[in-house]
Amino acid sequence: MSHNQLDAKSQAWSALFSEPMSELVQRYTASVFFDRRLWKADIQGSLAHAEMLAAQGIISAQDGADIHRGLQQIAQEIEAGTFEWKLALEDVHLNIEARLTQLVGDAGKRLHTGRSRNDQVATDVRLWLRDEIDGLIALLRELQGALVEVAERHIDVILPGFTHLQVAQPVSFAHHLLAYVEMFARDEERLRDVRRRTNRLPLGSAALAGTTYPLDRERVARTLGMVDDDGQPQLCLNSLDAVSDRDFAIEFTAAASLIMVHISRLSEELILWMSQNFGFVRLADRFTTGSSIMPQKKNPDVPELARGKTGRVVGHLMGLITLMKGQPLAYNKDNQEDKEPLFDTVDTVRDTLRIFIDMIGGERDPATGERSGGLTVNREAMEAAARKGFATATDLADYLVRKGVPFRDAHETVAAAVRHAAGLGVDLADLPLADLQRFHPAIEADVFQALTLQGSVQARNTVGGTAPEQVRRQIARHRARLG
Ligand code: ARG
Question: Engineering a disulfide at 456: which of 246, 300, 356, 395 sits with its beta carbon 3.0 to 4.6 angstroms away?
Fold first, then answer.
């Protein structure tokens, strides 16, 4: 660490300090190696602030123009990789400001008028997160679209639905996939909701109490696109709260955790389904790996990792929420610890969604827009599994109810028939009519229609049920919603 760098930093506050920081403390307190990722938002915020300062006559038009020019150049330098990030300058904000002053002199030193790093960093994180949320919403919609496409091709494919991982009732594979579409649709709603509270402007709160300069906060909010659906500027309206709370980051991480929990449940099913005992689906080879010792293996590494990374994101939620607890008003340096978990959450969710879009839906041909190479479905294996485990037992009970038998009695009757069939090692549908009639005289030849997988699925024709008619209706609704 050169003395020059230390000097550069002590200039950022004042001559009050008589002793340089030790190198370890400097590394401990610096954030530039991770928060430099906020550079675009930082420059965007500074441009809006400077433009407003000039418009309000707080700095001269010339200073405003110089700041603008300097910040543009810095953006180019960062983009080109020629910007020199200095640990001694602690964070992204001080690095950019120091370079600005180097480039444009006193005008650069005027940029920080009426501003503190406290409202600056809160603004940067909000701007950055807002744009990342938009990217995640787009990906979530793409994943829903991919699931709907696969569902549409498999409306009449039947697999066993499970409760307690025991065969319960037959369901359409499309219906099963659409369950995940519902989950991801709610995740999308949650992200939109978080976005509203994220997209509010802290700038103008200064260090904690507001500032003595006649700032026009609404102008800055408009410049930064921090407006509601009606174009009204959205400001944080208490300066102490504005610089200190990170609840928007916490609720984002909570929404992200739920996305991952849904991904994790889907992963768990994919892992089960592609195991030899199920054999329901195959993932394209590019999502699996072999074993170094067992030549026959194809391991579902991607879904397993996604399930694992869910723990990581939920961990970030715990980290952030614990970070906030016990902090007195207003800003405390603890909050610098908000960034790495937040960044990692965004990266993890983004990569996971991108991989799942491809793994489920396949790669999209840029020319035709068609996807290929996604999930392969083994319809025979699914249906064979649905024929095991007496998946249509409820249908026999419902059949008896239609013949006037009270449901509880019908339930008892069917239980006895299942026990009998299990003893013979056959399905209910394999029992001769005379056998079935021994359990209840109301049973007639039309019972076999109720006992088929197709009959069972078709009969569940209530809104939100698994009958093809209902599934088609939901697919149409999702298609209209997803555009
Ligand atoms: N790097 C700091 C952070 O991320 C910026 C704000 C610093 N403010 C302060 N008063 N030390 O939180």
Answer: 395
